[in-house]
Design a protein that fits this description.
Layout: E1 4-5, E2 9-10, E3 17-23, E4 31-38, E5 41-43, E6 49-51, E7 60-67, E8 89-90, E9 101-103, E10 108-110, E11 117-119, H1 143-162, E12 166-175, E13 178-187, H2 194-215
Antiparallel strand pairs: 1-3, 2-3, 3-4, 4-7, 5-6, 7-8, 7-9, 10-11, 12-13
Amino acid sequence: MWSESQPFLPQDSNMTSLGIIKIPDGLPEQLGLVGFFYPTQGVLPSGAFTSVYPDVVNPVLTLNVFSGDLGIDDGTPRSVYTLEVDGLTQHTGGDTGLDSLELTPGATVNLPNGWGTITWEAASEQEPVKRFASLQIQHDPTSGWVLAFAILAMAGLFAALFVPRRRIWVKARTVPAGVHLEYAGLARGEDPTLHTAVRDIANDHAAALNRARGANPEGETR
């Protein structure tokens, strides 16, 4: 009847871990259990449990039991990694006056109010807690294209920042002696080389006109 559960997550350097179990169906009330896993149980001077060693030497699991509406029947998404205890009734641990349920590998304890039992089924006598590792391997065939377009975008940005942008105008008007050409330029921002650029264009244009006139000496150059 356990419809939702989560791995026990490490909480401190001694690998004390926290886990959540939610039982929404099959009992008079919905149950939520908050579990604390101690790989090697020890007791602090305050009487609280801790783990004195990260390896599984003396494993103990304690559970605090809550009942009430877990909030999973109204369609609202709920995380399986947390239990919202506000509005729930606590039956073990805390200020209830009852100790938390305590389990060792292979042991069975009774849930409150005759709601059944809970058993810690050990993986084996030699290894009561099954060890596992979670690995994620990902391959993205488009990463090379993304890198290439990112480099192109950066190149375009640097070109816009460092390559001067200019506008050049050429005005032609007829005069009795032929055609009069005027050249003008406009730069975006300060450009001390604008005058030189316009002059070079005018010289190149004049040279091209002279070559055309030389290739067609009887024709009219416009």
